[in-house]
Amino acid sequence: MNLSLIIPVFNEQDNLPLLFEAIYKVMTSLNQSWEVILVDDGSQDDSLSVLKEYAQKDSRHIRVISFRRNFGQTAAIAAGLDYAQGEIIVLLDADMQNDPADIPMMLSKLDEGYDLVSGWRKSRKDNALTRNFPSMIANWIISQVTGVHLHDYGCTLKAYRRDVLEGFRLYGEMHRFIPVYANSVGAKITEMPVNHYPRKFGKTKYGLERTAKVILDLFTVKFLVSYASKPIYLFGGAGGFLMVVSAIIIFYLFVRRLFFMVAIASSPLLQMSAMFFILGFQSILLGLIAELLVRTYHESQRKPTYTIRSIINLEQDPRD
C-alpha cells in the first residue's frame, strides 16, 4: 500500500458525498495503490450509514472504523494510524474545508526529500474573531516554545512518511503537535499553502475553549520532547535554582546581622530561605526518581534512545 488517507468523521452526513467525489477524482489520477480510512467518532446523524454504503460499494479502497461514542479528533486519528497500511499517511477533515486536490502537490513535496508536509490555510475562510485570531496567537506561541515554526498547526491536512509517526501515542488534543514529535526524531518538515473553503453543511465543532486546551497541552508536549529522556535537567535545574535563591537569602541575612546588627531569627526571610532550600532538595529528588522511571520505561520495552533514518549493508535490527 502506497498511500493511506485518514479522515475523522463526526456529524458530516451532508458533506460525505462531496468528500468521496473529491477523493475519487484525485486518487484515480494517481498511479499509486491507496486506501481511505474513515473513523466515525460517535456521530449522532446518519454519517455512519453513509460510510457503510460507500464501503460496501468499494471494499477495495474504503475502510470504516466506528467508535462506540465520541472520543475526539485525536483519538480518531490515532485509530486511523493504527490500522493504516500505507507508507505515506495523509490526514484531512471530512467537512470539505480541506481540498483533496492539494494532495498531489503534497506528495510531490515528499518526493523532494521531506518527511512531513504541513498545510497552511493562508486564506482561511473562518470567523476572524473566534477562529482565525485565536489560532494565529496559538500558532505563534507553539512555534516559539517548541522551535518548530509553522504558520498553521491547526490545519489537519498534512502528509507524512510513516516512519516519522512511529514511537509515540496521541492523547488529548495532541494531533496538532505531531510536527513537534516528528521534529524530535529528526524529520525534515516543510509547509505549503493549501486551499480552504467555507463550510457548506453542518457547523464547526470547535470554539474559543479549544485554544485554552491547546495551550495546556503545549506544556505536556514541551516536557515530553525536551525532558522525557533526561527529566533531571528540568527537576534538577529548578531545584538548583531554588537552592541558590535560598543561599542568597541566607547570605543577605548574615551580612545584615554582621553590619547592621539585625537579628536573623526574627526575619521572615529565614523561613523563606528554609522553604526554598527544602523545595529545591525535593525537586532534585523528584528528578532522580524520574530518571529511574525513564530508564525502566526504555529498558523494559527495549525502546532505543535514538532513531535511525536508514542503514547501509546491514540487514537485521540488533534489537530484534
Summarize the structure.
With 320 residues, this protein is of the alpha/beta class. The chain is built from 9 helices and 7 strands.
End-to-end separation: 24 Å
The ordered H/E elements are EHEHEHEHEHEHEHHH
Poorly predicted regions are none
Radius of gyration: 25 Å
Q: How much strand?
A: 5-15%
Average pLDDT level: 86
Q: Based on DSSP secondary structure assignment, what is the total number of beta strands?
A: 7
Let me know the largest β-sheet: 7 strands, mixed
Q: What general outline do the C-alpha atoms trace?
A: elongated
Q: Please work out how many helical segments DSSP would assign.
A: 9
Topology overview:
Elements: E1 3-9, H1 16-27, E2 34-40, H2 47-57, E3 62-66, H3 73-83, E4 88-91, H4 103-111, E5 116-120, H5 128-146, E6 158-161, H6 178-184, E7 189-193, H7 209-227, H8 232-260, H9 268-300
Parallel strand pairs: 1-2, 1-4, 2-3, 5-7
Antiparallel strand pairs: 4-6, 5-6
